[in-house]
Amino acid sequence: MTELHLIDQQPRNKTRAVRVGPVTIGGGAPIAVQSMAATRTQDIEATVRQVNLIAAAGADLVRIAVDSRKDVEALAEVRGRTTAPLSVDLQENYRLASLVAPHVDKIRYNPGHLWHHERQLPIRDKVAFLAETAEAHDCAIRIGVNCGSVDPIKTAEFGHDDVGAMVASALEHCAILDDLGFTRYVVSMKDSDWRKVVEGNRRFATQRPDVPLHLGVTEAGMPPDGIIKTRIAFEQLIAQGIGDTIRVSLTVPFDDKGLEISAGREILADIAAGRFRSVPPNFGEGLNIISCPSCSRVENEAFIELAQQVKVMSEFAKAHAITIAVMGCRVNGPGETDDADIGLWCGPLAVNLKRGEESLGHYPYDQVLGKLRTELETIIENRRAAK
Question: How far is the first Cα of the chain from the last one, in angstroms, to the nearest whole number?
Fold first, then answer.
């Protein structure tokens, strides 16, 4: 018996089965492994190549981002040139669901982004549109909550308990879909902090053990740290029967995206065989670099190289509890760098440098590293002086 089959004999939450094209998520089915194309969707050749690369690495499902009608046209072409089961990330424009649904097996939306779009409409009406569209085109839905983009009402209600806000958002949208009679959905609750991922999914599973969960540590960063963060979260959750599908989100060159699949498979095999890796001494206590795994919104592939350069340059500060966030786009970048000590979010020609929520200016890719080092040294010196 293979190790991947052994995991299915371990206790699993009795979630309902959700069909996503030829793949079943939940209901006792094997844990599905996913990844996401990082290429620009409108670059059809590159996107087809990446989807097929990820599928060849063993992915059960591949996600593609769509944010415009031109993206939809490209998606239709991609769909015709690959047999991989496809999910779509609607990014900001949920109305595109009616155009993309004929080409995919699952639609993912972010409740926080949905709140901001067409604010004059009740949330229920927007969710109903998505549910009706998915039903008409034989699609499943993923409610994808991100701790860094929960709607402001929930954020205000829960204050510093951002995990509570994330879970409440997920529960609210589950209740809406249930009330609409649409139950073919899964939920994800992600954060760049593996601790919040574990806590959030545990809280949710206690209240809704019937709902299949997609696990992932978003913006986990570069290997090996990104894999270690993800492994810690998965080991704790899956060993408790929580989790029906996974993604390992890594900042790697486009041609290496298959690593997300192989890393996920390896983690599942280790959990199945009872091989729980030891955590490196003092892991998570010093410098913490978070970086997004990239998607079609990345406006300059130099973002990936910059993230790698940041890792090398900041090695001198590894003993200091400082968080550096390197984000690849202008949509999530501004908000999701707010909680970091130093944030970089990358545009097409320049990188925006931040200290917490404060902007420090924007600099060309070949100059920002020096500015970052100066800011990093300043933080370290200020903390020493304060002591």
Answer: 58
DSSP calls for 338-380: TTSSEEEEE-SSEEEEEETTEEEEEEETTTHHHHHHHHHHHHH
Confidence of residue 65 (pLDDT cuts 50, 70, 90): very high
Confidence at residue 268, expressed as pLDDT on a 0 to 100 scale: 96
CA 31 – CA 285 distance, rounded (Å)? 31
pTM of the model: 0.89
User: How far is it, in rounded angstroms, from Cα 137 to Cα 308?
Assistant: 41
Q: Which two tokens stand for residue 286?
A: 């010093």
Q: Give the architecture-level CATH label for domain 3-272.
A: Alpha-Beta Barrel (3.20)
Q: Give start-end residues of each CATH 3.20.20.20 domain in the chain.
A: 3-272
Are residues 155 and 134 in contact, defined by beta-carbon separation less than 8 angstroms?
A: no
Question: Which DSSP symbol is given to 324?
Answer: E
18-47 per-position pLDDT tens digit: 999 999 999 999 999 999 999 999 999 999
Architecture of domain 298-386: 2-Layer Sandwich (3.30)
CATH 3.30.413.10 domain residues, the chain: 298-386
Q: Which neighbouring-strand residues pair with 6?
A: none
CA atoms of 181 and 193, how far apart (whole Å): 34
